[in-house]
Amino acid sequence: MLLAAALTAALLPAGTGCAQSVDPIERLGRKAAQEVRPNGPAREPAYRRWGLRYPLAPPPHPPARPLSESRTPAHARPPVVDRVPTTDRVVFLTYDDGAERDPRFVDLVRELRLPVSLFLTDSVVGPGYGHFARLRSVGATVQNHTLHHPALPGLPYAGQRAEICGQQDKLRSRFGIRPRLFRPPYGRYDTTTLRAAAHCGIRAVVLWRAAMTATGLACPRGDRHLHPGDIVLVGPDEPTAPTPRSLTTRLLRTIQSQGLTVARLEDYL
Prior knowledge:
This protein has helices spanning 2-11, 24-33, 46-49, 67-71, 103-112, 122-125, 129-137, 157-175, 191-199, 244-257, 265-268; strands spanning 80-81, 90-97, 116-120, 141-144, 181-182, 204-206, 210-213, 216-218, 231-234, 261-262.
């Protein structure tokens, strides 16, 4: 009888009786921790390999139509945004230029299923488009950051249009897409920039509300806190700065600690 009772107790599902309920995120982490390779020992879950205490929470369902499509008629001057008006507890990760081509960053994006937006400059990317093709294959999106990274304000209309439309053409030839988002170099623009961007098919000009730098999270509001809808620039992408991979893992820990998660910018904008 004792043996039968012990076997019955062992077969009862978890949570039966007086056991405390398990937080859904914690349960997800336990499930990931129990993953087993087909021919090997238990595999460490991806979030732990990248220094996170628990998995990133999945983002909510995005709006039915992105903001730029629902409010901006074709060829109208695009809105300039540094955040997305949403109550969803999400932020958006963006990366500029394309100088950094760390293959481990591809692993990070793939293993965490991390939605990131890459604003590329042709003269910086150079022969490295294959790296960004790999990032696209694991879920990253590619957007426009001009051909040569000039400061646009004050340049004539023809020059600004050549920089923006020229990169549209480059990205179409490389990836078969014409981006609808554009980030001006240094975050600087004028009314001529908006006219040129509209002519090139851009639907929104994207700045940023916060930046993840070598010294930590920089927010213009000064509170070092992220808020729902914030667009975050991870960088700058400089030789002496920590790698985007390192900055991203630090940023993800901050995002989790503030009760947020990461969503795809293009789904909202």
